[in-house]
TrEMBL record:
UniProt-listed SUPFAM superfamilies: XCC0632-like
Pfam families: ABC_trans_aux
Keyword field contains Lipoprotein: yes
Domain ABC-type transport auxiliary lipoprotein component per the UniProt entry, residue ranges: 36-189
The entry's keywords: Lipoprotein, Signal
Protein name according to UniProt: ABC-type transport auxiliary lipoprotein family protein
Organism, as annotated: Sphingomonas lycopersici
Signal peptide: 1-22
Record's keyword annotation contains Transmembrane helix: no
Database matches in InterPro entries: ABC_trans_aux
Length: 194
């Protein structure tokens, strides 16, 4: 009986040293599309054009849930307490899908549904998705690659939005990046067209 009590007492000083991850921020950032399909709206791939939107690739600085700040041309920092609810490339792909559906009327397919479909394919790289300290702005840059139908040529175009930020903090960055992402998504949807 005495030995378990001794082990418990010996482990008590270690209890304050054990951590199972960083302390989460008070809230997590998310993206919200300003354009979405109306609830109850039926989409039919037999009568409308289809598109598959691949989750964009990202550079290493964006392959985290944290929000980067380009502090100098050669250094990146991250905003304290600013963290996405999921990886930014997945959030952007979902926002792009919502915007594409609302603006173009295309049926956006997921990977399983797109198998065997001859519709358009959109891929690309989310090059910037953070804050530029020098210009005090949120920058969203997406290098898009579009194949309009199976066997057709690849079209590429860069889309970018810069939204001013008054402060470099979690709330301001989240709002500005959401606006920038919506601007880029609208431009991409217009480029893809109906």
């Amino acid at each position: 009986m005495r030995q378990p009590a001794m082990i418990f007492l010996a482990a008590l000083p270690l209890a304050g040293c054990i951590s199972f991850g960083a302390k989460p921020p008070p809230s997590l950032l998310d993206l919200t599309s300003t354009e979405q399909a109306a609830p109850g709206q039926t989409q039919d791939a037999a009568t409308a054009k289809t598109i598959f939107i691949q989750t964009p690739s990202v550079p290493q600085a964006l392959s985290t849930a944290r929000v980067p700040v380009q502090a100098t041309p050669t250094s990146i920092a991250y905003i304290k307490d600013a963290q996405w609810v999921e990886p930014p490339q997945r959030l952007f792909a979902r926002l792009l899908a919502d915007t594409m559906t609302a603006r173009s009327g295309r049926v956006v397919l997921d990977a399983g549904q797109a198998f065997g479909d001859n519709g358009a394919r959109l891929s690309g790289e989310l090059r910037n998705f953070g804050i530029d300290a020098a210009s005090s702005s949120a920058i969203v840059t997406f290098d898009a690659a579009l194949v309009r139908a199976e066997g057709s040529k690849v079209e590429k175009q860069r889309f970018e939005a810069k939204v001013p930020v008054s402060r470099i903090d979690a709330a301001s960055a989240g709002r500005a990046l959401n606006r920038g992402a919506n601007q880029v998504a609208a431009a991409v949807a217009d480029w893809v067209g109906k």
